[in-house]
Amino acid sequence: MTLRSDGPGNQEIYAEEIDQARQQLFKGQLVHTDARTLRLVAGADPRPFRVDVLGSWRRASPGEAQAPVSAGAQIGVKLHCSGAGVRCTPLSSERRNVLSKSDGATWMWDVSAQRPGKVSFALTVTAYFRESDTVLPRSRL
Length: 141
Hints:
This protein is mainly β.
């Protein structure tokens, strides 16, 4: 049986590829449902929560919030929900490509509350190297 070693040369090439991928990222825009406009009611039908990651900028509409994020890669978005029995059910895949300034991708969740009380939401936006699990930058909003 022969053991294969990637060797230091291959590690250097990999590190250079990661560095180049990070340098090729650009500032994109994240536009999402403003949680204050959800008007969750305990036991009511779920409300939609939407996130768009865009390669270029647009004016946010009423009921939306925005923030800068890295784009130019495969992007993953997670919605984190807590409090008052809140449930956030994803309706789309976690990863989408936003490779150029003309690209955009949308993520959707159904959000519902099981009981009255305070809820909180947070977003994690991750740019990945190619189709791997290697994280380029990660933003928490």
